[in-house]
Amino acid sequence: MVKARKYVFRKQFDGFPKESDLELVEEELPPVKDGEFLAEAIYLSVDPYMRAYAPRLSLGTTFIGSQVAKVVESKNPKYPVGKHVVGEFGWRTHTISDGKDGIFPVLNPEGLPLSLSLGVLGMPGNTAYFGLLEICQPKAGETVVVSGAAGAVGSIVGQIAKIKGCTVIGIAGTDEKGKWLVEELQFDRFINYKDKDFEKELKEATPKGVDCYFDNVGGEISNAVMERMNQYGRISVCGAISGYNSGGDVKVGMVQLFVVSKQLKMEGFVVRRWTDRWFEGIEQNKKWIKEGKMRYRETMTEGFDNMFKAFVDMLKGGNVGKAVVKA
Amino acid sequence: MVKARKYVFRKQFDGFPKESDLELVEEELPPVKDGEFLAEAIYLSVDPYMRAYAPRLSLGTTFIGSQVAKVVESKNPKYPVGKHVVGEFGWRTHTISDGKDGIFPVLNPEGLPLSLSLGVLGMPGNTAYFGLLEICQPKAGETVVVSGAAGAVGSIVGQIAKIKGCTVIGIAGTDEKGKWLVEELQFDRFINYKDKDFEKELKEATPKGVDCYFDNVGGEISNAVMERMNQYGRISVCGAISGYNSGGDVKVGMVQLFVVSKQLKMEGFVVRRWTDRWFEGIEQNKKWIKEGKMRYRETMTEGFDNMFKAFVDMLKGGNVGKAVVKA
């Protein structure tokens, strides 16, 4: 008999998630039936979308999320023992699956870490790839601003914009992140949104205005970027992390004033929109990594017991690159 | 010697425009030279964009705006005496022009009032036509919400959406406006944003959600509409009148939270974008009027001396349909 451990969603988040909102419980799994397999988590993902999606999640269910897992028992020939998968199994150590839904292949065996399937070679990498290229359609020579620039998505967005020949300005909240963005990822400039001269620095950094804005944060940071945007600027809205933990109570200046006068196009997206092109994005990012044009970093937390801590640290901006938990 | 009267922009608006921000002065016009003509204002337009644009307008210049004028003296064969033109001459009674810039033909002589060239058969009509059809791309059976619904633009937007087979909900601020929208313009429903149950009424009025939103106002009204929008909803942002008189100080909930989760597309526009298709919009609106499918109303103020009053009344929502001043 296999015992799984899992986090059950017990209480709707109010502001920043509290440890007592989730309960870590043990569950005895039934025997594996024909067509099923048992997978054991190796790496688990913590992402901003989990906080955003929580209000629509039922209490009593396992908290949502993807993981890289290894098949350890199988009665399904498509998933033999030893195979690795990316599964939308939630926050749990062991999962019985029939292999039908929410399973993606691990596409990065060639010398790259398995955990990248949760980052640059997985959902966040595709979020950056499609969200920037399809919605902003950046052209060489244009100025691209990315907020949440040192996160799993933002750090890839900026690098893709550089590959496309753009001038790239990254916005994040610590100078350590900024150093990484400029020195290792070749961003043209970093601006710390916590600086009291943030708006002035942003103006100086964008002498030709801003053509594309990849927005992970929302709020006044985004208004300051819109203030700098050129006519017909494009905004890809990937997230609004500055509002996730405030219950919608954060009040900001109205964006419509910028949207009209500058004729901006702002579009939100969920990466599932491009499910039919999923492997295109992952293969392209992998190619750029192999060519040395794209770098990545992971903030790795050890231990399934530390899932909650890793989650909240990430929400508070404690991660550089992709936040991952090693089970 | 002809004496023109004109309104000079003397003081930048702070909140709602004050009468002392503009000065009504007399100006002696020089003789008409070869290639020029003298036009006398018949109808003058007051529009929300004038308030929005004012911060970028230099003090000491004539306040901006269009008028229907009649050529009363001419040394330009293209503009013979007696011809009517729509000119971007600003708030003035007499204008000498060389006919090169900012002049549109009057396209509605066939039994329709000349003043419509400032409304449904002019810039506001084209704003409605292109702003709705090009940006929202409404499909038959979809639900379309229009704010500022009883204004020069909103009232046309709603009627075009009805012609295209949509369910149309108009938002405005008086029940008299609502009566006109529903009883005469065939809107499916009117909601008064001043009602304390506004959000509840909006929810009841949109059982299938909202697919398209034509936004003239911005602010919390627009957030309430976004709350009701369906996945992949489209928002055409024409104006943000709720923010024009507040110096950007109105604070509202952040739109990015809706934009991401519902994958909304929000686009602002200025109607000049479609200058190359200008006559298409006007001819189509005229056709719909002739066919009895489109109605219009004007709120007419008598006298050039009352320009300022008409302007502020319009900004406060005092008009039904197009606000026009008869010189």
Can you walk me through this structure?
Two copies of one chain form a homodimer. By secondary structure, chain A is an alpha/beta fold. Helix content of chain A is 27%, strand content 27%. In chain A, strands 3, 4, 5, 6, 7, 15 and 16 form a seven-stranded mixed sheet that branches. In chain A, strands 10-9-8-11-12-14 form a six-stranded parallel sheet, with helices on both faces. In chain A, strand 11, helix 6 (219-227) and strand 12 form a beta-alpha-beta unit. The relative contact order of chain A is 0.15. Chains A and B meet through strand 13, helix 8 and strand 14 of A and strand 13, helix 8 and strand 14 of B. Strand 14 of chain A pairs antiparallel with strand 14 (265-268) of chain B.
Mean pLDDT of chain A: 95
Q: Low-confidence stretches of chain A at least 5 residues in length (pLDDT < 50)?
A: none
Instruction: State the helicity of chain A in percent bands.
Output: 25-40%
User: Shape of chain A, please?
Assistant: globular
Largest interface between protein chains, with number of residues from each side: A-B, 35 and 35 residues
Helical segment count of chain A: 10
What is the oligomer described by this structure?
homodimer
Summing up helix and strand content along with how strands pair, one would put the structural category of chain A as alpha/beta
Give the total of domains of chain A.
2
As a percent range, the share of strand residues of chain A is 25-35%
Using the 3D structure, state the CATH architecture of the largest domain in chain A. 3-Layer(aba) Sandwich
End-to-end separation of chain A: 20 Å
Task: Indicate the CATH class of the largest domain in chain A.
Answer: Alpha Beta
Tell me the name of the CATH homologous superfamily of the largest domain in chain A: NAD(P)-binding Rossmann-like Domain
* Biggest beta sheet summary of chain A: 7 strands, mixed
CATH topology of the largest domain in chain A, what is it called?
Rossmann fold
Radius of gyration of chain A: 20 Å
Number of strands of chain A: 16
Keywords (chains A, B): Acetylation, Cytoplasm, Fatty acid metabolism, Hydroxylation, Lipid metabolism, NADP, Oxidoreductase, Phosphoprotein, Prostaglandin metabolism
Domain Enoyl reductase (ER) (chains A, B): 18-325
Subcellular location (chains A, B): Cytoplasm
Organism (chains A, B): Tenebrio molitor (Yellow mealworm beetle)
